[in-house]
Design a protein that fits this description.
214 residues; 14-stranded antiparallel β-sheet; mainly beta; 1 helix
């Protein structure tokens, strides 16, 4: 797609500090971590060529339906193709403050989670991770210290990107994954924000991702 989708095609997810807009085709085209008015990590909403995005969708033609899980800000997008169906769950991880009477609101982890679940048949999925900091003005540098983990540096901002599936680095600033998701299979990708001097490559397990969504 080269044209700009209507703003009504976007769903909002957040954690009371961070916010992201998810398009109907599974692309995060706007995301500010740690503050609503912070410099965006993805800003394709404003510049489709240079703004950056985080896209998950089938490789074949599909139809998409979506909803928020009842009583939550957790977004579910169901993609249906001729070969099957897959659900992408999008949310920000939070700690609910249980057991802490001083906690007035969820504590943010500055972590964007994208959970992929096979529902029927087999669906070939592509994940494109293309961060561009500061409204697209800063093209970051990506380092991959281990398989499935990427450290992303750009000016005063940084991210840890991790995937439970094989990640291919494309150039200095982009990552791509392709996978076949079968009915009953689950996997995830995650992006965690930090200042560059605080960046840590902490590996999440599939159980960690499930617990964070829960």
């Amino acid at each position: 797609m080269t044209s700009y989708p209507p703003i009504a095609d976007y769903a909002l997810i957040g954690d009371a500090h961070s916010a992201a807009l998810v398009s109907r085709d599974g692309s995060i085209d706007w995301c500010c971590f740690h503050r609503f008015d912070a410099r965006p990590v993805f800003a394709r909403l404003l510049d489709r060529g240079r703004g950056g995005h985080f896209h998950i969708a089938p490789m074949e033609p599909y139809t998409a339906t979506r909803r928020y899980l009842p009583g939550t800000n957790v977004l579910e997008t169901r993609f249906t193709t001729a070969a099957g169906a897959v659900t992408v769950v999008d949310c920000f991880a939070v700690a609910d403050g249980s057991g802490d009477p001083a906690a007035e609101r969820p504590h943010p982890h500055h972590q964007l989670l994208r959970f992929i679940r096979g529902e029927r048949g087999t669906v070939r999925i592509v994940v494109d991770f293309s961060p561009r900091f500061d409204y697209g003005r800063t093209v970051p540098r990506i380092e991959m210290p281990e398989a499935g983990v990427a450290l992303v540096y750009g000016g005063a901002d940084a991210l840890v990107y991790q995937s439970a599936v094989h990640v291919i680095q494309e150039g200095l600033a982009d990552c791509r994954s392709e996978m076949a998701v079968r009915a009953g299979e689950e996997t995830f990708v995650a992006a965690t924000y930090a200042a560059p001097h605080e960046l840590r490559a902490v590996r999440l397990s599939l159980d960690d991702a499930r617990a964070a969504v829960d």
